[in-house]
Amino acid sequence: MEPFQNLTGILAPLDRANVDTDAIIPKQFLKSIQRTGFGPYLFDEWRYLDHGEPGMDCSHRPRNPEFVLNDPRYEHASILLTRENFGCGSSREHAPWALYDFGIRVILAPSFADIFFNNCFKNGLLPIQLPPELIDRLFVKATQPEPLQISVDLPAQTLTLSDGEVIPFAIDPAHKHRLIHGLDDIALTLQFAEQIRAYEERRRLEAPWLFS
Amino acid sequence: MAPKTLYDKLWESHVVRVDETGMALLYIDRQLIHEVTSPQAFEGLRLAGRKPWRPSANLAVPDHNVPTRDRTAGISDPISRLQVETLAANCRAFGITELGMDDPRQGIVHVIGPEQGFTLPGTTIVCGDSHTSTHGAFGALAFGIGTSEVEHVLATQTLPQRRSKTMLVEISGTLGPQVTAKDLALDLIGQIGTAGGTGYVIEFAGEAVRALSMEGRMTLCNMAIEAGARAGIIGVDDKTIEYLRGRPMAPQGELFDRAAQYWRTLVSDPDAQFDRVVRIDATAVAPQVTWGTSPEMVVPVTARVPDPKDESDPVKARGMARALDYMGLTPGMPIVEIQIDKVFIGSCTNARLEDLRAAAAIVRGKRIADSIKQALVVPGSGLVRAQAEAEGLDRIFIEAGFEWREPGCSMCLAMNADRLAPGERCASTSNRNFEGRQGSGGRTHLTSPPMAAAAAIAGHFVDVRAL
Known about the structure:
The structure holds 2 protein chains of 2 kinds.
Chain A: E1 6-13, H1 21-24, H2 44-47, E2 79-81, H3 94-102, E3 106-109, H4 114-121, E4 126-129, H5 132-142, E5 149-153, E6 158-161, E7 166-168, H6 173-181, H7 185-190, H8 193-206
Parallel strand pairs in A: 1-2, 2-3, 3-4
Antiparallel strand pairs in A: 1-5, 5-6, 6-7
Chain B: H1 6-12, E1 15-18, E2 24-27, E3 30-33, H2 39-48, E4 58-60, H3 78-94, E5 97-98, H4 109-116, E6 124-127, E7 141-144, H5 147-156, E8 158-161, E9 165-172, H6 181-192, E10 200-205, H7 207-211, H8 214-222, E11 231-233, H9 238-244, H10 253-263, E12 276-281, E13 288-290, E14 298-300, H11 314-327, E15 342-345, H12 353-363, E16 374-377, H13 382-390, H14 393-400, E17 403-404, E18 425-428, E19 443-446, H15 449-458
Helix pairs in contact in B: 2-5, 6-8, 12-14, 12-15
């Protein structure tokens, strides 16, 4: 996984609550056995006016001019601003893969669904939970004629807006550590292989029916 | 000793270690695997030169992509076929048991786990699928994970996890006739919202939960994820133990009795403290129907489509207006006047034998309305299908105009050929009414099996209690 430390980018406002992972990446694209290549199909049903299928060349597909990522101001956004319960529904990790592949690195929302939230950290994406009033204010700033730029400093846990405002944010220390160093979770866990084996031996005695 | 919740007991018995930040390494007893969320996990293992820690802790089955019509011709969509073949190849290469497409036991992963006795009380169970919460009905801590975590469990038999908060949903009273566990789940989601359970593990308890069959309890826990909770759990009782007795992958004989003795301890202690308590009176719950594009957009069948003007929160009001536009509904319209194009009886929520029996009881001797373009019954597994046929349920459905299919996820998420066309409206026993979920532009109304069956006969929603 790519380490994440600092990033400066445009904020794209996606003004919807309960954005589900079916909307982030529709089911037909889940047939892929790869981890990459989902970016062109991100938000497929909202972004395009036709029906998308895997393998389609998206460069000539008709785009929905109403959709935020088709607005020239936000085409190259790397930070997504959205509403509560982002990423709800299916556990598909294809959702963070698609966001990452498109170029999104940070998501700001009042709340996230649990599985999606966890999946983000496995893929170099930083989801940041902010108070609803602050999210409201960011929506106002992000929808001005000139897009809002934000500098994200993960080590310092701050967001610096292009108008000078500095916003601190909270993050689980374990998540922060893994993102900053781009650590492989499995390698970290395997450092404790002896403890896992010891646990397993105890469990084998206590619940032998699980090992037969 | 302080009284413990069931979740406390499950959690504490699986902690391998806790790091300095409080992150625990949790041992995972069981992993279920399907074709959609596993190929990249196996590829990850291969790239890193790793092997599964304990292959026998895993059980795989293809369900999302499989055709539900005649299977002798295989899968016609080459991309779906490759994904199903990839699962079989990975299971062979890594020594994992797979119930393949032609196995009589094949079915939806959350139906076959309990059916085979792979799902056992007191275990931690994961799957790269959000509806893994289903297995919590057996007093197991079961939750959905992403593909990176599937790989992590394959490689280490553990997951780094933080302890969740606990919510007790205490359901008193008695469900009325034709009111089901599905209605309880939708009623709860309507009350607390789709984010109401975020960060919590929900324990369902109370008189009405005890009265539910294991099938009903699975339906309830299955929908816990739609309330935002990763896991739903229910304490073990006689029903749990009797359901598991004799299941092929459950312990047998003396070992079963020994296990059962332990399983009986898997209930919350009296006076155990929960972070949040929600009380529901089952007696007051009516059959539910969703009207929007989120499971929380739900009302009783006796109600009308709500008006965004009555919503004070502007974000919510905009969401309601957008949902009504997508669904092609007008505020104030009675739910019973909503005309249906298709009916889907199936999914990991409602495709078990009890669900099929309940639907068949409604359609027996009747015909689906002329306006219904398609009515599907997709059993949850090959064994459910066989038992239903032994009881003659297939004949009842076919004579009423339903199609009787092979088991799989089917039109719950429309990854195979079963789907809605744009604008088509479906009464569905599945779990998600998201935009495009059952097919691009399709309109989904979630409801119970008897309600979906009644809608098929009438061509529109009806209060099944009045039939």
